[in-house]
Amino acid sequence: MLTRYRVMAYVTAVMLLILCGCMVAKYGFGVGEDLTFAVSQAHGVLYIIYLIFAFDLGSKAKWPFGRLLWVLLSGTIPTAAFFVERKVVRDTLPLVNGARPAPANA
């Protein structure tokens, strides 16, 4: 569950940076309109998947509403998802490790 969130956080953040570059090319230089459209559609679909995974992780980790909202919105702010993902992993990893059964003595 944590791994799929991490993957989607990075994918969403990279796609958002690519989208920002495409927007600069489109509106600043008048080129790449079709590419911008394709990247924006791909980012939209990937962001929806990110929302699902982040919400699933947040509900299982019992995050307060404010934190869940910040994590969900971090996919819309360029570079924010990189920093939020690190904090989420640092705070959630002990919960994941604590939930694992102790290895049996053989």
From TrEMBL:
Which Pfam families does UniProt cross-reference here? DUF3817 (PF12823)
Which key words tag this protein in UniProt?
Cell membrane, Membrane, Transmembrane, Transmembrane helix
User: Can you tell me where the transmembrane regions are?
Assistant: 7-29, 35-53, 65-84
A GO cellular component annotation here is:
plasma membrane
Q: Give the bilayer topology.
A: Multi-pass membrane protein
Main localization is membrane
Q: Subcellular localization, per the record?
A: Cell membrane
Q: What is this protein called?
A: Membrane protein
- Lineage per the UniProt record: Bacteria, Bacillati, Actinomycetota, Actinomycetes, Kitasatosporales
